[in-house]
Amino acid sequence: MGCDTVSTISLLEIFISHAIHAIDPASPAFIGEVSGIDLTRKLVEEEVSAIHAGMDRFGVLVFHDQHFDDEQQISFSRQLGMLEEATGDIMSEKDRRLSMDLNDISNLDKNGELLPRDDRRRLFGLGNLLWHSDSSFKEVPAKYSMLSARKIPLAGGNTEFADMRAAYDALDDETKGEVHDLICLHSQIFSRGILGFDDFTDVERSKWAPVRQRLVRRHPNTGLLSLYLASHAGGIEGWPMPEARSFLRDLNEHATQRQFVYAHVWRPSDLVMWDNRVTMHRARRYDPKEVRDMRRTTLTNEVSSLEQRPV
Question: Full-prediction pTM beyond 0.90?
Fold first, then answer.
């Protein structure tokens, strides 16, 4: 038993120290690249622990050459936490091509054909081009997101990530004091409205009624503070709407300055995993005549941002 214990500790230390490393010394320090692990198989407990530790340290982890099918991606994700259902789109039951455990981040219909350029589902999906945090429009928002690149366009379609811890740290003391206790209102109605998309049914408007989220969050493991922003944030409790949106726009501009941002250039079979509590992200444009088939599993957070450890 003593040898087993030593081996386990050694494996964990080696995995954290050598298999997870900064992706590029010139890149922002919140991106880790993981090598030497096959996520399509069942992970041992030490590997799961190391991935969580890597997420706490970096915020975004990149795994190359992960040749998932849907069930393998779902199985991998469940080893890390509780899956969130894919209820953040406007896909009807009859039009859905993937299970409710997978978010369909593609430009394809259920038959694998390209969506027409003016298709309502495609236009709604253009909201992914805006900076956001997954599921901030839900009372209990997302924890981790895991995006698998099944087919990528020849050019474009990158994903950018912004480190909201570094963005918070760079605020002046006066602004830190101002944002400290603010509560924002999040809804997909707000984010799609930025694009001029307002083609919502009454059911969808009810489904995406605004929810309350903290503007400043403390990470439960690291204790670090971060801004919790998204294009879904369209108001601040107690503030006039124009003033709130102007202030949120300024914060978003601050948080997405180049020094806080990493652009991931996708390779086929990449799996990128990020912590929505400490990052924002957005997709970049690509030729709509090319296929971009990305599939995302999402872990729900344990509690709402309002119930987190006090700031």
Answer: yes
